[in-house]
Design brief:
Layout: E1 10-11, H1 22-37, E2 52-55, E3 66-68, E4 74-76, E5 84-90, H2 95-111, E6 116-123, H3 127-134, E7 143-146, H4 150-154, E8 159-160, E9 162-166, E10 172-177, H5 185-196
Parallel strand pairs: 5-6, 6-7
Antiparallel strand pairs: 1-8, 2-10, 3-4, 5-9, 9-10
């Protein structure tokens, strides 16, 4: 499957399987059409160069997060209490995610001393796929593996990249769908708002 155009967020989908011929591609396409016809949620990309912001619904609890880390061990949202968290959902097949990750990693390093924690949550890909993708980029960022996609589903991350802002008390505040300019004023405003919450 081709990656999304770099100007659009990527619709949520399963990770690509190795190319095994035209029949598998047609079977996957047919299955996708069947699921759509049956009313399954089919995420759509947002308009080009747009970031859609959605406030977290008042009274709706923040889902628990307990995921394996790429380097070993586990990460829990409860363990991050006291720090503001950017929970960033992404995948290696998502072109806007690829472009956004270096900015996101630099911003997280810059804001760490102010109490901001970044957790990049990879959607349904193997540890080896994620390692192979990150190695040549030399990115220094914490990565958790959402093997089953359950955490992305709990946070309703339907478009990638998707970033959820969580305050120091562990409450989700907002969701950003689409790539944010983390090196510019847009990203800085998001970080400042979350650290003040």
């Amino acid at each position: 499957m081709k990656a999304c155009p770099s100007c659009d967020p990527c619709p949520l989908r399963d990770p690509p399987a190795p190319d095994r011929g035209r029949r598998q591609g047609l079977a996957a396409f047919s299955l996708s059409l069947a699921l759509t016809a049956l009313g399954a949620v089919t995420p759509r990309p947002a308009q080009a160069a747009t970031v859609l912001r959605k406030a977290w619904p008042k009274g709706r609890p923040t889902p628990a997060v307990d995921l394996p880390l790429l380097g070993g061990g586990r990460w829990t949202l409860a363990g991050a209490r006291g720090e503001a968290v950017l929970l960033h959902f992404w995948a290696t097949w998502c072109e806007p995610c690829r472009e956004e990750l270096p900015q996101l990693a630099a911003m997280a390093r810059r804001e760490r001393a102010r109490g901001l924690q970044l957790m990049a949550v990879d959607y349904r890909e193997s540890a080896s796929t994620v390692r192979s993708f990150l190695a040549p980029l030399g990115l220094d960022l914490p990565v958790a593996l959402d093997d089953e996609g359950a955490v992305a589903k709990a946070f309703e991350a339907r478009v990638f990249p998707c970033t959820v802002g969580i305050d120091r008390a562990g409450r989700a505040r907002f969701q950003l769908m689409g790539a944010v300019d983390w090196a510019g004023t847009e990203g800085q405003a998001v970080v400042d708002e979350l650290l003040r919450a």
